[in-house]
Design goal:
Elements lengths: L17 E3 L2 E3 L5 E5 L5 H20 L6 E4 L3 H8 L5 H10 L1 E4 L13 H8 L4 E7 L15 E7 L9 E2 L4 H14 L9 E2 L5 H18 L3 E6 L5 H18 L4 E3 H8 L8 E7 H10 L6 E4 L1 H14 L7 E5 L4 E5 L16 H13 L3 H16 L2 E2 L1 H4 L6 E2 L2 H10 L2
Parallel strand pairs: 3-4, 3-5, 5-15, 7-13, 10-12, 10-13, 11-12, 16-17
Antiparallel strand pairs: 1-2, 6-7, 6-14, 8-9, 14-15
Helix pairs in contact: 1-11, 1-12, 1-14, 6-7, 9-10, 11-12, 12-14
The structure holds NADP nicotinamide-adenine-dinucleotide phosphate.
């Protein structure tokens, strides 16, 4: 085997995905970079790759095929090149526009910054997109998991995740507290740690634009703005206002608000329109449990989106199988949403579904929908037949235990 290089190896007949006028142009042999990831990453990547390649082959009979090229980040990059996130990795994703990754180690305190966060920020992947739906008969804590079928668009670059934080007792925190007191008459307790929560019109509107475009393209019937604007008026409240503004400015013909729905349409959504509504963050959690079928697409600032993504995934028993993507304008990185599960590394044991379903999202994003549909179909049938990995097998009566690679084979057989 050739020695790994930081610079991605270009497959001879591969071509670049291009982006023009807001649209991807995907050739029949697109070059797609992948990061295996750390811990169990290589296990689940092998499984996901088999499934993605088989789906493309079955859907297009050889007329289309992905030309993979390997890139590196986190532990593996450190081991090979003594770098945490090599510039070549960032550049490859920027150049080839669509990439996929397994989970990456995040040092808990000190050391390197999260490579995941770094990639999102450097590449300006401003939307974290998480579809959440139930795959029967995955065990879950609610009575009607089938009623939840949503996609969450979480802002990825602002809010408390912008990383502007000062340690309690630091010179910076003390100076900021003194400034707020002296200049803005805002009093904070001396010795507090301080974090800044920026939310901008630009950041909010581009997220809402992407969310509404997705809702239109996928036939979603409503977009719900999740915010805590009753308390944080100028950040979360402004997020809500800017989302409504964007809908009115750019999607007036395709959307109606709840007010208009009741004033003009007697509560019945006209055909072809998307309902734009908002919910206070705490109520949103209740609503998703009590009336899940009234929600379709949720758009949220970073922290709300973080919480609701995991809560919704847990509701359908699928934290370990929920897929995700980080998407910017013409650049997207698809990923497993769980961590590296290092204790199972190299055992061919863990569930590859999250990365497999992220692969499905990737194919859909590329416009290769027929192949994406095959992945979902194969995965649903494999799970329905109860041929599952250890995590589901231990919860399902009568299930047949499969290794990570065997589960991938079962998905392919069921496509
Ligand atoms: P984790 O790797 O997600 O693992 C926690 C537990 O979740 C595992 O022990 C296992 O449970 C279960 N699990 C995770 N993935 C699974 C899979 N594919 N199939 C079946 N079960 C799975 O979380 P962690 O131990 O907190 O984090 C480990 C490392 O991953 C840390 O460095 C963390 O920062 C990083 N991380 C990376 C990402 C990312 O790259 N996107 C996300 C989260 C965490 P059982 O033990 O019960 O079997």
């Amino acid at each position: 085997m050739s020695k790994p290089t930081k610079q991605p190896v270009i497959p001879p007949d591969g071509e670049r995905i291009e982006y023009a006028d807001g649209e991807l142009r995907v050739p029949d042999r697109p070059i797609v970079p992948f990061i295996e990831g750390d811990g169990t990453g290589p296990d689940i990547w092998r499984a996901a790759r088999l499934v993605i390649e088989s789906a493309v082959e079955k859907a297009y009979g050889g007329a289309r095929a992905i030309r993979w090229t390997q890139i590196y980040a986190a532990d593996r990059a450190l081991e090979l090149f003594d770098e945490w996130v090599p510039d070549e990795t960032v550049e490859a994703i920027r150049t080839f526009r669509v990439a996929i990754k397994g989970p990456l180690t995040t040092p808990v305190s000190g050391g390197h910054r999260s490579a995941n966060v770094q990639l999102r920020q450097v590449l300006d992947l401003y939307a974290c997109v998480r579809p959440v739906f139930w795959v029967p008969p995955v065990p879950c804590p609610v009575k009607h998991p089938e009623k939840l079928d949503i996609v969450i668009f979480r802002e990825n670059t602002e809010d408390v995740y912008a990383g502007v934080e000062f340690r309690a007792g630091s010179d910076e925190a003390d100076r900021l507290i003194a400034f707020l007191d002296a200049e803005l008459d805002a009093k904070l307790r001396a010795g507090s740690g301080v974090g800044i929560k920026p939310i901008s019109e630009f950041g909010t509107k581009r997220l809402m634009r992407m969310a509404l475009a997705h809702a239109l393209a996928r036939g979603r019937r409503s977009v719900t703005i999740m915010h805590k604007g009753n308390i944080m008026k100028f950040t979360e409240g402004a997020f809500k206002d800017w989302c409504y503004e964007l809908a009115a400015e750019e999607f007036a013909d395709e959307t109606v608000t709840e007010q208009v729905l009741w004033d003009e349409h007697d509560g019945k959504l006209p055909d072809g329109k998307i309902l734009v509504k908002d919910r206070i963050a705490d109520a949103m959690f209740q609503q998703l449990l009590l009336r899940p079928d009234e929600y379709d697409l949720i758009v949220a600032p970073n922290l709300n989106g973080d919480y609701v993504s995991d809560a919704a995934a847990a509701q359908v028993g699928g934290l370990g199988i929920a897929p995700g993507a980080n998407i910017g304008d013409g650049v997207a990185l698809f990923e497993a949403t769980h961590g590296t599960a290092p204790k199972y590394a190299g055992q061919d044991k863990v569930n590859p579904s999250s990365l497999i379903l992220s692969g499905r999202m990737m194919l859909e994003y590329m416009g290769w929908r027929e192949a994406g549909d095959r992945i979902l179909d194969g995965l649903k049938k494999a799970v329905a037949a109860k041929t599952v990995t250890y995590d589901l097998e231990r919860q399902m009566e009568g299930a047949k235990l499969r290794k990570c690679s065997e589960f991938a084979e079962a998905v392919v057989e069921n496509m």
